[in-house]
Predict the 3D structure of the following.
Amino acid sequence: MSYRVGIGFDIHRLTSGRPLVLAGITIDYDRGLLGHSDGDVIVHAVCDAILGALGLGDIGQMFPDTAKETEGMYSLNMLEMIMNTLRHEHKVVNIDINCICEEPKLSGYRDDMVNNIADTCRLDPSDVSVKFRTNEGLGEIGSGEAISAQAVVLVQKPKNREKTV
């Protein structure tokens, strides 16, 4: 087997008047993430990690922020579209995610987030890890102005085997 690793990162500002969507879950909070789509930094980081592992660029190339058809798009739909582009010989093996924010507290949403990512990526939930960190009060994230996420993805591709007669 051949393996490839991809790393993804995303950050968005928090703003009033938008729902907060993380890993496809609408979080009970007074602000949401500013973005062309729903601003889901967790899913965007996973998308970038998968695309990076496959050498296919980044989420902005596949879903440009200038395209009307992606405006307000539910990010799990983007992830589903990326999963559908995987060639049959590629398989996501596991995903490790960090979500960095001061507020809101997200640990109560972990299982639903894991299940959403696992279902969309056709994985067992045990192959998806979602962790939450603060930024210790530092920078835009630490002051509660933004939320970011990082993801690492392992993708597997069987080696080409020559047929023997």
